[in-house]
């Protein structure tokens, strides 16, 4: 833990100790850089502690989005062995449910497009999904399985990466809010509540609060908080063995296409789509909702009812299981649903934010490519879809 004015100049200062910032700190420290990880609170105190820990490829768009996510997913087995922390990494695959024949046809085209990107998926008919998950409602039309999908303990991931960075020499400067950043000739002067920190490079990994840090160096960052709520069940029997969600989730997430799900007005109003995630504690999480509500993280009863309604529609047995609590988190949303992992017009100032609901799953690859970028090394693929300046015209750059 660091306090007081620091006269040493760090190679990299990472602001934000969630899963993304902790990963950026870890992979930079792994390269031998002198790193300081700064946060106004504790490790994983904000969005990372209010997520469901999914590491998915199935909910990505075919093309760059899916390939980038798969590269990150492939890093988890080694990372879980490498870090001296139990990440609870499990790779059981995931199951998308299609409620109607029309959804099944849309999912089949999506499946083919993803296969062409190298993603292992397969369509399942009604009998196959019933054999796979016997407690499903009997009228569910079919499904789509993604073999490689997995899950991780999200708080454990952030802690594992942050403490792993510390073991490699990084300094953790927690409970230390950044109040101002000044670009000097050869370093950034970072003013914090506990003193001054000097660094040659700065990475803004503050998620929904990234715009506030960007504003300190004169950079507008087009990220908005998008609220999502989750229900937590009591400890119970196995309802489903792995991640299960409705294919309508894709349509809700990206708000695209002309297809409309056969749902109630309440479900439609609150942007709710069924998501089920079993935990290591023998309970399960139910989601999800999407709403622009500023920084409000209170749980709304009508949203909770809509999520419960969708859950019971797919697994009727859930009607007899108690919900013990609910919580909300803020996803850092960008207009094209892709994160910003990029340098900026301010030399030495980088952004790793805007992952929306994918921060847990994309944490490893984001940390790796950001470390490569700062070291001046070529990335493993063309990262232009993640550039900061994609949101601005040539005149605005």
Mind explaining what this structure looks like?
By secondary structure, this protein is an alpha/beta fold. It has 2 domains: 9-49 and 155-223 and 336-391, FAD/NAD(P)-binding domain; 94-147 and 224-332, D-Amino Acid Oxidase, subunit A, domain 2 (D-Amino Acid Oxidase, Chain A, domain 2, 2-Layer Sandwich), CATH 3.30.9.10. The chain is built from 11 helices and 18 strands. Strands 1, 2, 8, 9, 10, 11, 17 and 18 form an 8-stranded mixed β-sheet that branches. An 8-stranded mixed β-sheet has the order 5-6-4-13-14-15-12-16, with helices on both faces. Strands 3-7 form a two-stranded antiparallel ribbon. The chain starts with 8 loop residues before the first strand and ends in a 23-residue tail after the last helix. The model has no long low-confidence stretch (mean pLDDT 93).
- The average pLDDT score comes to 93
Q: Indicate the CATH class of the largest domain.
A: Alpha Beta
Largest sheet: 8 strands, mixed
Return Rg in Å: 21 Å
Number of strands: 18
Structural class of the helix and strand makeup? alpha/beta
Shape: globular
Spans of at least 5 consecutive residues with low confidence: none
Number of DSSP helical runs: 11
Order of helices and strands: EHEEHHEHEHEEHEEEEHEEHHEEHEEEH
CATH superfamily of the largest domain: FAD/NAD(P)-binding domain
């Amino acid at each position: 833990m660091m306090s007081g004015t620091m006269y040493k100049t760090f190679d990299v200062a990472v602001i934000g100790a969630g899963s993304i910032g902790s990963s950026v700190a870890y992979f930079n420290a792994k390269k031998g850089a002198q790193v300081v990880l700064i946060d106004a609170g504790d490790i994983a105190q904000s969005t990372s502690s209010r997520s469901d820990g999914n590491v998915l490829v199935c909910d990505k768009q075919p093309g760059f989005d899916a390939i980038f996510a798969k590269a990150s997913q492939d890093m988890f087995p080694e990372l879980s062995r490498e870090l001296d922390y139990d990440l609870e990494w499990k790779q059981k695959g995931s199951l998308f449910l299609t409620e109607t024949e029309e959804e099944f046809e849309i999912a089949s085209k999506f499946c083919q497009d993803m296969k062409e990107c190298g993603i292992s998926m397969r369509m399942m008919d009604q009998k196959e999904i019933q054999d796979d998950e016997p407690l499903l409602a009997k009228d569910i039309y079919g499904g789509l399985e993604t073999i490689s999908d997995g899950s991780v303990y999200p708080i454990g991931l952030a802690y594992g990466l942050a403490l792993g960075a510390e073991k490699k020499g990084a300094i953790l400067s927690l409970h230390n809010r950044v109040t101002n950043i000044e670009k000097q000739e050869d370093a950034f002067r970072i003013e914090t509540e506990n003193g001054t920190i000097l660094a040659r490079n700065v990475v803004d990994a503050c998620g929904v609060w990234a715009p506030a840090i960007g504003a300190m160096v004169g950079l507008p960052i087009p990220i908005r908080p998008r609220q999502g709520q989750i229900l937590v069940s009591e400890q119970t029997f196995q309802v489903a063995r792995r991640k299960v969600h409705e294919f309508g989730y894709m349509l809700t997430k990206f708000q695209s296409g002309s297809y409309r799900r056969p749902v109630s007005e309440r479900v439609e109003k609150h942007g709710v789509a069924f998501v089920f995630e079993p935990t290591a504690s023998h309970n399960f999480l139910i989601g999800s909702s999407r709403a622009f509500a500023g920084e409000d993280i209170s749980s709304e009863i009508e949203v909770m009812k809509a999520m419960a309604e969708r859950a019971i529609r797919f697994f009727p047995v859930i009607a007899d299981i108690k919900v013990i609590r609910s919580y909300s988190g803020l996803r850092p949303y960008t207009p094209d649903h892709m994160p910003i992992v990029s340098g900026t017009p301010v030399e030495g100032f980088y952004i790793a934010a805007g992952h929306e609901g994918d921060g847990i799953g994309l944490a490893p690859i984001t940390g790796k490519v950001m470390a490569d970028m700062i070291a001046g090394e070529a990335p493993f693929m063309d990262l232009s879809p993640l550039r900061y300046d994609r949101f601005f015209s040539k005149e605005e750059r």
